[in-house]
Design a protein that fits this description.
The complex is a heterodimer of chains A (107) and B (134). By secondary structure, chain A is α+β, with helices and mostly antiparallel strands. Chain A has helices spanning 2-8, 11-22, 27-31, 38-50, 71-83, 90-105; strands spanning 25-26, 54-59, 62-67. Chain B has helices at residues 3-27, 33-56, 72-99, 102-121, 123-133. Classes of the chains: A alpha+beta (107), B mainly alpha (134).
Chain lengths: 107, 134
């Protein structure tokens, strides 16, 4: 359960889950929606896989990601989306914002 | 046979056996008439909780993409809708068996779960209407 809360506490990972709610996507398609580097996105995917919220499958040369959330987990995601950052500790929020800013400015 | 199918068969077997068991015990006078209500309520409440647990996990059970003949996005949305609808139906019927008057509990359960199934089966119709309107 702790892994699920950890995965849902990050806005990037929540956005990934939101994208996967529409349809299964390749890693490249998902990464196209973000400005983060490949290793950062891979780390986010690893956390989501660790929490068993996404499933990955290799089809040909591509890795397809699919939503793998129970009804309760989806309800938690909706709750996290509605509450946003508010349920995270302040230190963690500022650390995330700093990291995201650094990623955006780096080439 | 897959693990999920085996689990489904096991759970449905338990529910059916439980129902027949209760009927058998009542017919042979093991369960007195005054205990009949409480045993029926507790059995149906448990069955509703099992249904909630089972349908909660339904969207998590993914079929391999290579085995799918249709659109994976559509299958995903059907699974999600079915999971949500049956979880809500199951919660309502569990509540009905705890709170509602004994005579009303079964009709409430049937309407809640029946309604959920109707929503799932009429999804293509709702989806087409929604696209036409938007």
């Amino acid at each position: 359960m702790n892994e699920i809360f950890k995965a849902l506490s990050d806005p990037t990972r929540r956005k990934v889950l939101e994208l996967l709610r529409r349809r299964p996507m390749t890693a490249g398609e998902i990464a196209g929606h973000f400005v983060f580097s490949k290793p950062t996105m891979s780390a986010h995917f690893a956390v989501l896989r660790g929490a068993d919220l996404v499933g990955q499958e290799k089809v040909g040369r591509e890795v397809i990601y699919r939503l793998k959330m129970s009804v309760l987990e989806e309800a938690l995601l909706s709750f996290a989306q509605a509450v946003g950052f508010e349920f995270l500790p302040r230190a963690r929020r500022s650390a995330y914002k700093g990291k995201a800013k650094k990623e955006e400015t780096s080439p | 046979m897959s693990r999920h199918m085996l689990n489904a068969l096991l759970i449905s077997g338990l529910i059916v056996t439980g129902a027949f068991g209760l009927a058998y015990l009542a017919a042979h006078g093991v369960i007195a008439d005054d205990q009949r209500e409480i045993s029926t309520r507790s059995f149906n409440f448990t069955a509703a909780l099992i249904l909630v647990w089972w349908s909660n996990l339904a969207p998590k059970r993914l079929r391999p993409l290579v085995e799918m003949s249709g659109d994976p996005a559509k299958e995903q949305s059907v699974r999600r809708l079915a999971g949500r609808a049956i979880v809500i139906g199951g919660v309502l019927s569990a509540l009905a068996w705890v709170i509602a008057p004994f005579k009303l509990a079964l009709p409430i359960e049937a309407s809640a779960i029946g309604g959920a199934l109707i929503i799932v089966f009429l999804r293509p119709f709702f989806s087409r209407t929604w696209h036409r309107l938007s």
